[in-house]
Amino acid sequence: MKRLLIIILLFSLMLVGCGSVRVTHSEFMMDTVISYDVTHSDANALIEECNNITSSAEDLFSAYSETSEVSTFNNSGRLIIEDIPEIYDTLRVALEVWEISGGAFDVTVFPLVKLWNVTHSENDWIPPTDDEIQSLLPCVGMEKLMFDSYQLTRVPYDSNIQIDLGGIAKGYTLGKCAEYLTENNAVGTVSFGGNIALVGSKKDGSLWKVGVRNPLSPDALIGTLSLESGIVAVSGSYERYTEYDGVRYHHIIYPKTGYPAESDLASALVWMRKSDAYSGAYADALSTALFVMGHDAALELYKPYSDFEAVLIKTDGTVTLTDGLAGRYTAYEE
Ligand code: AMP
Ligand code: MG
Q1: Largest pairwise CA distance in the chain
Q2: Assuming Cys at both sites, which of 39, 194, 285, 306 could form a disulfide with 168, CB separation 3.0 to 4.6 Å?
């Protein structure tokens, strides 16, 4: 038995040359499956450090764990963040994406996320009433948060102002892992659910191939992208949803109405060209924002930017690529 285990282990560690070893490994953290495929002479140690990065991030960011820093803020209205650059960094990106998306991405949507409770729904789930939704709308809006590199507070008169970094924290953490792997000259991919980091260049010089899920039939791919290193994040109504009376309710809220976003998009994919924490956070927040905004507004937002590209898939199956993806997308034949 022991021998068999050693043989299996040897097969799973594929020798790639120059002392480099290719290691694949999966974990479940931050409410999602994390898959590593890393080539490096010390790949196992690098993966372990990425797990440490992710585990600390989970402790900070989870809005559903009473002991997280985010919950400390939500419960008390104040958080000293001078020693928690992770919170400051994500809030800065969140604010930037909130501004450029006209409020479509808004981390103060947490009271509504809790009210809808789509992500943790049980069989007896029912949608909230319109009165309940309307009563929480006044606590939504990032202008109600005040933060600098020292502390995070909220406007004093409303204790219902609470944050949920669930639309940005996974990407930020993935980016931190990618940054660490890049600094150590590793090559490979790390995927956090729908988000994927492409680290370094493949030895044979070919581009990374990233499958694009068909949001209308999520077990199948609709195409593939050929990309250099960077971070890819995807948001879609198919990711987490529940049903009541034959109607589907997904997990991404339109902050202006308090209801799940009625987007003409089924999914929005964003590719940032760098493999670092900022790019991870930006890609994650932006993919959520583009999904909420819908096709035309998402393309308007894209126009002045050159540091990201997007694949927008409409609910009728139409695929729109931004200019920088020309020649990089191959559609799957039916
Ligand atoms: P993602 O899967 O990255 O699109 O993020 C979705 C998660 O972000 C949800 O499960 C909520 O926790 C949170 N969320 C929902 N709606 C919004 C929104 N409009 N802006 C920011 N975060 C949101
Ligand atoms: Mg996101």
Answers
A1: 66
A2: 285
- Cα separation, 25 vs 16, in Å, equals 17
Nearest atom of ligand 1 to the alpha carbon of 253: 16
Q: Quick count: other Cβ atoms within 10 Å of Cβ 297?
A: 18
How many other CB atoms are found less than 10 A from the CB of residue 32?
16
Strand partners, 253: 260
Looking at ligand 1, which residue's alpha carbon is closest to its atom 15? 252
CA of 167 to the centre of ligand 1 (A): 4
Q: CB burial class (10 A; 0-12, 13-18, 19+) of residue 93?
A: buried
Give the Cα separation of 219 and 210 in Å (integer): 15
CA distance 52 to 65: 18
Rounded CA gap, 10 and 43, in Å?
14
Tell me which residue of 57, 19, 65 sits closest to 40, measured CA to CA.
Answer: 19
- In the block, residue with structure tokens 């997007």: 310
56 φ/ψ angles, rounded to the nearest 5 degrees: -65, -40
Instruction: State in Å: Cα 272 to ligand 2 middle.
Output: 13
- What's the whole-number mean pLDDT along residues 257-275? 96
Does residue 301 contact residue 289 with C-beta atoms inside 8 Å? Answer: yes
**What does the pLDDT look like over 190-231, one tens digit per residue?**
999 889 999 999 989 999 999 999 999 988 999 999 999 999
pTM (predicted TM-score):
0.92
User: Which residue puts its alpha carbon closest to atom 3 of ligand 1?
Assistant: 167
| DSSP classification of residue 104 | S
- Do 57 and 65 contact (CB within 8 A), yes or no? no
